[in-house]
Input
Amino acid sequence: MFNLKTTPFHERTSALCQPQNWRKWAGYFVVGSYEHTLDREYWAIRNAAALIDVSPLIKYHITGKDAAALLHRVTTRDIHKMKVGQVVYTGWCDEEGKMIDDGTVSRLDETTFRLTAAEPNLRWLMMNAVGMDVQIKEVTDEIAALSFQGPNTKKVLNRIAEKPLDELKYFRIMENKINGIQVTISRTGYTGDLGYEIWMDAKNALPIWDAIMLAGTDYGITPVGILAMDMARVEAGLFMLDVDYTSTTHAWTEAQKSSPFELGLDWTVALDKQGYFVGRRALEKEKREGSAWKMVGLEVDWVGMENIFKRVGLPPQIPGMAVRGSLPILSGNVQVGYASTSTWSPLLKKYIALAHLQKPYYEIGANVRMEITVEHHRQHAPAKVVKLPFYEPEWKRK
Amino acid sequence: MTADRRRQTIDFAACGQEKELFMTSNQYDAIIIGGGHNGLVAAAYLARAGKKVIVLERRHIVGGAAVTEEIFPGFKFTEFSYVVSLLRPEIIRDLELPKHGLKILPLPSTFTPMENGDYLAAWDDHDLTRRELYRHSPKDAEAYDEYSRVMARAAKAIKPIINLIPPDPSSLHPRDVLNLLKLGQYAASLSEKELYRIAKLVTQSSADLLEEWFETEALKGTKAASGIIGTFLGPRSPGTAYVLLHHYMGEIDGAFRAWGFAKNGSGGVSGSILNAAKALGVEIRVNASVAQVKIKNGRAAGVVLENGDEIQSKVVMSAADPKRTFLQFVEEKYLPDDFVTSIKNFRVRGSSGKVNIALSKLPRFTALDEPALYRGAVSISPSIDYIERAYDDAKYGQISKRPYLDMIFPSMIDPDMAPPGQHVLSCFVQYAPYDLEGGWNDERRTQLGEAVISTIEQYAPNIRECIVGMQVISPKDIEAIAGITGGNIFHGELLLHQIFFLRPVPQWADFRTPLKGYYFGASGAHPGGGVMGAAGMLAAKEMLKDGVL
Output
């Protein structure tokens, strides 16, 4: 029988997954949730230490004299300025300045980079590498990855890592050893909390998992599935390909495509960098003329929502997890945008959403209304445009 | 000025002096006596309305009975109150408490070990709980869902009353009439069935209520326990069904779900309110014990501290218990006789204690070897008879030989509560009567600790070898440390004759007092205790309405 792949941690994760809640991710099975409710997993991210199997992330090793030049050309960041040991988050665009994918670039040494992506990008990278002295290799299967997120993670890693993590700054990567096994550790993640991603040879996956789980016992370590992570990433204002935007490679219409500016990634578009990069001209034009859309944070007014539910005699009923479904956003009775992911935030005690709004409704403080379903009826709860991220603890960058 | 309602005030103010009063440059708009959570909430709401507010706290830390202290190095005890369930959602929103550090962590299960070596558990998954109940009684497993729905509906039905200023039913003052009207409208919105259900609930005993539904002793015992918390009643005493319902109200906020264990314990709750209050400009003074409210021209005009310092203000609010508020801070002559009598008769019989334990490791419960049980509550309530017997001891001035215990392991929920690998255990214990025969002393305190440990030992025989430190808090200690007269955790029992428009005294349930400019916003006022913050919030709102601020 043909099955999807399992990750190198499957032997451990499958033994722990109580509700048999599995999700597909880039051709792999990963745990959706380990427990029957998401509460504890979510709070492990925000109050303790959450261990998340993120092995399905697509990974490329890009090496050679022109490795930097290739990434400088493909992505919107100024890759030549990157120091060894630095990590940057970036999107990459087509010639029209519309997003293909997004991920992180780590400079492992002068001529070696690791690029992560949500979808396969090998063909695109190859096309852009014509004539360059560069090798591109997909290492998704060979490299297992754990995302270790939460305020206690540094203490746990310091118990077992050969070199202490105290010096590892936000968005930096280091070579290290755990129980004598070679790993690289980056201070990155998809939760907006203090956190690390640990990259290792797939054949070392289980001993590393075991070492971290053991060291974390006294610090509230909890294996966490991708559903709880989904709530945390919305709070952190982080979006997801195919949920919050459509890759140009999948889009059927122009309207489905998004530019980095429209997704609020202005800070990642280095228009001041030297030389050509894919999409430059279109992005320069958009920068000059302004964007028609913008992805923003939306906060639903609880009392307003409560009042709508009160009419049918119910307290507010919203799902206790992130919902990846489009919800219309109105101003007056006119639709001015849509929310692409919405979630209850257990920490903020707010109903929040990542929303795409048309000019001028995307300004901070703008009042709009978001669709909610109340007893099978479509209603609209008052909501306000707010700055992203919704949640940023002081220890994230410190 | 004359009294604006039938209720009696003692009017000292001569009209001509009013003007002078407002011309003096008062240092503060409002003084709040007591830095417990209600005092802090009131201060924050007043500051939010632009008022200059100072909170005076007797101890070196604020929080009152919602404090977390490191009694043994590295072990943090949520000393008195220990869970969040009733904290008002609007306070969380209005004061932006999450931004100021409030994190409410899940407390997903309840585990009740039984005397025969078995156990009863309620887990965070509905089907798991149902299957577990089915093991004891298929009938109860079915009744449980219906019971939960009926209780939730009843709680929902009476919940709007929490935020209502209790009207004086005997008054024709427009404010009272309006509030009575609101209450009437609200009562009219309930179905007949709901009205009868509520009438029954507020008069019944929790034992009678539960026996209508269930046959499993451990289930009835565990449910009945929440009907006696903070009262000097047993599960067979009428009125306890209401207390049970009072605790149910924390569970019906729909998606809001503000119930669980606060990060850093109850000190985390008051800590977040403190941060919010400070951010709003509230001034906090600790080690500032109030001796008396200063009265000028018949109005509260400030306070005198025990060290002799005087602080002036336009109004004063007490967040202390009713006895301190009216019998200690104010001389009797400033209050009507019948009011003083009523306050003297207000029942504040402390009935519970707290034992906080530092553990080198987790004890093992013989009934079940399951790590998940340590993340929820462990309830020693094997039957209604067990709890009623515990009450029998207390009725005659004794510590219960086998007390009811509500235990949680805070370090299993928030790992930062204890040093890595070690734990803290919080045991709420009832009954430990304030009026103990022979009085409280070290020996009796040891006896209380021993009653708790030997009770736990029945179900977790290795408990003694896990203990590295222990703090025993009797009702006398609650009084001495948190300053609550009688050591009652609700500042006064939630008895039928002490709730709503009767709390603390008939005709004075609207947070005002017979002394002008003096307000009362604490657990002894409507709607009562349980780290709700409602009294503080409502009192602040009433203070702002009176036009003095």
Summary: The two ends of chain B are 17 Å apart (CA to CA). Residues 138-158 of chain B form the longest helix (21 residues). Chain B has three domains: 15-64+85-102+262-347+491-545, 108-137+352-431+437-473, 140-215+226-254.
